[in-house]
Amino acid sequence: MAIEFTKYHGLGNDFILVDNRASSLPVVTPDQAIKLCDRHFGIGADGVIFALPGENGADYTMRIFNSDGSEPEMCGNGIRCLGRFIADLEGESRHKDSYRIHTLAGVITPQLMADGQVKVDMGLPRLLAGEIPTNLGTAETKVINQPLEVAGKTWEVTCVSMGNPHCITFVSDVAAISLETIGPKFEHHPAFPQRINTEFIQVVSRDYVKMRVWERGAGITLACGTGACAALVAGVLTGNCDAIATVELPGGCLQIEWSEIDQRVYMTGPAQRVFTGQL
Ligand code: ZDP
After folding, report:
1. Is residue 224 annotated as a catalytic residue, yes or no?
2. pLDDT of res. 126
3. Is residue 218 in contact with ligand 1, taking CB distance under 6 Å?
């Protein structure tokens, strides 16, 4: 059976979007996703995202497979792309600007803005070690500036879950980090039983930071939405950042706010359609 797909990206974090509205099970298997994501033998992408029928009263359900076939709980850049994809699928029949999306990290709400950007209510960050999960500290404690030995060096790490797990390290120069060497060592460190997304952050000013990321299940990517949200939360927790800041990634900038009113995290950035094809 032919499967239609559309390629989208958010700041160069790229995804194959599949119209899965006719079934509550993804029409592509994790093994097929690995092949489709291959940049030489496949379409090329950081992950495959499915627009499924809504569950628990939500408008739609999102599921995503990483390029290694694993399934993360959430994907920030991906859910901006999904919001745009759904609007494109609905076409003329579309009657709303925001969608309630059921994910493994709870209900997440992308909103299509008049200027073409997508603003996402990413929900509440989770800060306790047991929720990340990490065994750095006991389950009920926050992990802020804790020492972690990786590759013969002690790093000071802060951990935040945006539904998926993140480990954030503040450094003086992100360009000097050899991500491809140490990224996998963080990802597979025994401190993180579900593995981890790893972000290195350089604070330029209280409202502007630079970030590079090694993603769990995907490696180096040009941007990571959940990672940018986790980084801003870590920046506030460590006293490095204001509650609203720009996060500059290799693929471009995201605006992130950790709201002092409702404690939720809001992410604003682009989502761009690239091409459509058939498998
Ligand atoms: O948690 C994980 O396994 C991530 N690789 C999921 C993807 C996160 C993403 N980069 C984002 O934008 O949040 C897509």
Report:
1. yes
2. 98
3. yes
